[in-house]
Design goal:
Blueprint (H helix, E strand, L loop, with lengths): L1 H18 L8 H21 L28 H10 L9 H28 L3 H7 L13
Helix pairs in contact: 1-4, 2-3
Length: 146
């Protein structure tokens, strides 16, 4: 039940941000800055396989641990892509309520990542190592070796 509440909150907040954007005149700069986020999310969808996408953070028997492609950069590229896509849209128009909705979206996705990662650690022995190497929502800076 908690998983579906998180999904509902995610989709509601994201939809609000997109639907409350002023699209006329077309916000070229904001959309140009948002496009890489959409590309990241779509790349992650393609890498996982469109038939294997899960919108809830629960691990199922079909869940696979994917660590290549965008998943080699961040553990949650679909969430990162959504945040990246919606952030530049906040300027069209800039309103405190829209910023609050984006911060709420960040919080919801953070809670989803914690829930998902707890399940992934239980189901995949190598998840801990992967988690140490790769950032969650933001890429981790490479560590220098002495």
């Amino acid at each position: 039940m908690r998983s579906w509440i998180l999904v509902l909150a995610q989709f509601t907040l994201a939809a609000y941000l997109v639907l409350s954007t002023r699209w006329s005149p077309f916000p070229w700069i904001a959309v140009s800055l948002a496009i890489p986020g959409a590309v990241l999310a779509i790349w992650a969808w393609v890498r996982v396989g469109l038939r294997n996408i899960r919108i809830h953070p629960d691990v199922t028997e079909r869940t696979e641990l994917v660590t290549s492609g965008p998943y080699a950069v961040v553990r949650h590229p679909m969430y990162s892509g959504l945040l990246w896509f919606t952030l530049p849209l906040l300027s069209q128009p800039f309103r405190v309520v829209r910023v609050a909705a984006w911060i709420g979206l960040v919080a919801v996705l953070y809670v989803k990542t914690r829930h998902e990662e707890a399940s992934m650690r239980e189901h995949f022995e190598s998840y801990g190592d992967y988690r140490q190497r790769v950032g969650g929502l933001v890429p981790r800076s490479p560590r220098r070796r002495a």
